[in-house]
Amino acid sequence: VESVPGCEARLRTVPAVSTVIEATETSVPESGAPYVELTDLQECHGLALGSPTRFGNMASAMKYFWDGTSADWLNGTLTGKPACVFTSTGSMHGGQESTLLSMMLPLLHHGMLLLGLPFSHHPELMTTNSGGSPYGATHWSGLDGKQSLSEDSKRLAIALGKRLAETAQKLGNNHD
């Protein structure tokens, strides 16, 4: 995203879903990006949504967050904004594409404009053996999560972020 002049990425995360009745997460994460707030959706000009793959689906914490956005859905907060999706999983056949598709569903309901990676512009999609999909960027992290990002996966992720930023600019959604 930030390879496009005038564009800035705002990183956010979602809190874990509590396995007990009383929520126990602190209001600020101990490390990493801050928790997403609904105002982040209002302020974004484009959205790159990522989640680890969990049995071919987005993580439950991500689904829980989207389940709480009905007011924004009714208000059209995200309507017409561009979006893309990305994921990482422990195995090559762990459900990357179905995870990407599961993340697209709430974005479609919100009226977002989904972007992928066209084969015509990204020959790596035909030759990579480490991840990548026309539906979005993927990464194969290995069972221990320590598999480094391959050059193909890196190029595809950068291309997707650049495509998102350029589309937001073309739609007049660039940052001032």
Structure overview:
This protein has 176 residues and is of the alpha/beta class. Helix content is 33%, strand content 11%. Strands 1, 2, 3 and 4 form a 4-stranded parallel beta sheet that branches. β2, α4 (96-109) and β3 form a beta-alpha-beta unit. The longest helix has 20 residues, at 151-170. The protein is globular, with a radius of gyration of 16 Å. The model has no long low-confidence stretch (mean pLDDT 90).
SSE map:
Layout: H1 38-43, E1 47-52, H2 60-67, H3 70-75, E2 82-89, H4 96-109, E3 113-114, H5 124-127, E4 137-140, H6 151-170
Parallel strand pairs: 1-2, 2-3, 2-4
Termini gap: 15 Å
SS summary, helix count: 6
Low-confidence stretches: none
User: What does the overall shape look like?
Assistant: globular
Q: Summarize the helix and strand pattern as letters.
A: HEHHEHEHEH
> What's the β-strand tally?
4
Structural class: alpha/beta
Q: What value does the average pLDDT take? A: 90
Q: What attributes does this structure have?
A:
176 residues, globular
Question: Summarize this, please?
Answer:
The protein has 176 residues and is of the alpha/beta class. The protein has six helices and four strands; from the N terminus they run αβααβαβαβα. It has helices spanning 38-43, 60-67, 70-75, 96-109, 124-127, 151-170; strands at 47-52, 82-89, 113-114, 137-140.
